[in-house]
Structures are given as C-alpha cells and as structure tokens.
Amino acid sequence: MGDFEHKVVFITGAAKGQGRAAALGLAAEGADIVAFDLGEPIPYPAYNRSSNEDLEKLKDEIEAMGRRCLICAGDVRDEAAVKLAVDNAIAAFGKIDVLFSNAGICAYGNSWELPTSQWEAMIGINLTGSWNVSRFIIPHMIEQKSGVIIYNSSIAGLRGVRRLAHYSASKHALVGLARSQAIELAPYNIRVLTLHPTDVNTDMNKGMAAQEGETPEAIANRSGGQLLPVPWIESEDVVEALKYVASDRARFVTGYPFVIDAGMLTK
C-alpha cells in the first residue's frame, strides 16, 4: 500500500507539467484523483496551454493503474466552475483529503511596462484562483476534520526575480494566504503549506524561453542558476516533495514554505 491509499487528491492545472506529474505520482501511491484544468488556450501568456485531450489522456493513464480519476474542465477564477467540480468530486468520492493548488501562469515583463490586463491575469490565476478553489474545498475538510492544502508557489515566492514582478508578487502572496489559513484551520486538523520549486523542466519553461527568442538553457545560464550543478529540476522532483508534505509522515508540518531549489536561495 502507498501513502495515499484510500485518499482523494484534488489537483488544479492537472493536464500538463507539474500537475500532471503530481496526478500520476500520487495515483501510483494509491490516490484517487480529481483533475481540474482549463483545457483550452488562454489569451495570456501566448505559449501553448493544455487541452481537453490532455485531461482525457491523464484519466486513461490513471485508470490503467487501477485508480479512479474524475476530470473537470474550468477556470480556477470561475466560481461556478470550481463549485461544480468540488460538488462533483464529493458526489463521486465522498471526500477530498488533499488539495494541490497548482494551476498557474508565468511570463516575462518589466513591472512598469506591464499592461493592466497582464497584471490582472497573473494575480487572478495564480492567487485569486488558488484562493477560489480552496474556499470551496475547505468547508468539506472542516466537516471531516482533516485535510491538507498545498499551494504550488515558487522560488520567486521567496525572492525577487528580474522581469517577473507580477509573477513574484502572486507567488509571495500565496505564502501569506497559506500561513493565515494554517492558523485558521489548525483547530480542524487541516494543514496548509507552500511548495517553492526553482526552475522546472516543463512546457511552460520552454514556452517562456521561446517567447524571449532564446533557449531554456541560455536563460538558465544567464540567471546564475542553482548551487548544485543543474540548470533546473524535473516535475518528478517537485512530486517527491509533494508526496512527503501531503502524507501523514508530515502530519505536524503546517504553515511552512517547503523549498526545492537546488541551492538557489543559498547561492
């Protein structure tokens, strides 16, 4: 039996990248998965996003493991879509044990040059969307007197990053949200944490580099990189951290920023 046998995990941004890796990794540990993603392109950023076909493929892979998977298409900012997904998850599985709030966007731009629409999209998806999903799941966790909420922040949630002010602001704000919710929800045996990965080898990373007309390797080399001799980490590295903080092995860990940075903060 895995650490997540008989557990139900709700994952946003599940169709690709870190969300997809999390869904597959936790299903392999015995979890049933609720996979929430927009499933269609968005105006900003312009790089390629997930599709409904990605969600269907994820469902097939999880069910091939002998686990259940409920796929839900919607925007994390859309109250009605999120409520419907949570209601359907409770109807299908009876509970939600873990929320991995992973949906997010990232794009370059000097802070003073950003159009209002880009600022609002970044804050809306990364911060408001994360809060929006949590507020529909928290009442169910309170009722069952247990749960874990994990927000996928970033190393940019703990330090400033050139030309990523709107992204960094959204990820810093997730830390404040998580720490406050950890205090509010501790009496109900609900833990709340943030994950802080460094650069991750995903389609998002590649898409951002392409928008700059560069390779991911060139951007990583120019940034100074990590303390350890790697340009980035893999989605599976984030999932290994997620498996720990979401499991009962970390049952007394809450309100904490969990860093997977290959030494970037130290360098």
Report on the structure:
The protein is α/β, with parallel strands linked by helices. α1 packs across α8, α3 runs parallel beside α4 and α4 packs parallel to α5. 45% of the residues are buried. The protein has a single domain, classed as 3-Layer(aba) Sandwich (Rossmann fold).
Briefly note the CATH topology name. Rossmann fold
Helix content range of the residues, please?
40-55%
Give a quick account of the main beta sheet: strands, pairing sense, barrel closure.
7 strands, parallel
Number of helices: 8
Q: What is the rounded distance between the termini?
A: 39 Å
Taking all Cα atoms into account, the compactness measure Rg is 17 Å
Q: What percentage of the residues does DSSP assign to strands (E)?
A: 5-15%
Task: Give a brief description.
With 267 residues, the chain is an alpha/beta fold.
List the helices and strands and how they pair.
Layout: E1 8-12, H1 17-28, E2 32-37, H2 52-64, E3 69-73, H3 79-93, E4 98-101, H4 116-144, E5 147-152, H5 165-185, E6 190-197, H6 203-211, H7 216-223, H8 235-246, E7 257-260
Parallel strand pairs: 1-2, 1-4, 2-3, 4-5, 5-6, 6-7
Helix pairs in contact: 1-8, 3-4, 4-5
Highlighted features:
267 residues; alpha/beta; Rossmann fold; seven-stranded parallel sheet; 8 helices; 14% strand; globular
